[in-house]
Amino acid sequence: MRLVERLETGPVPAPVIYRLTPYGETVLPVVEGVRVWGEAHLERTGGVLAPDTAMSCADMVG
Question: Where does the HTH hxlR-type domain start and stop, copy by copy (predicted)?
Answer without folding.
Answer: 1-46
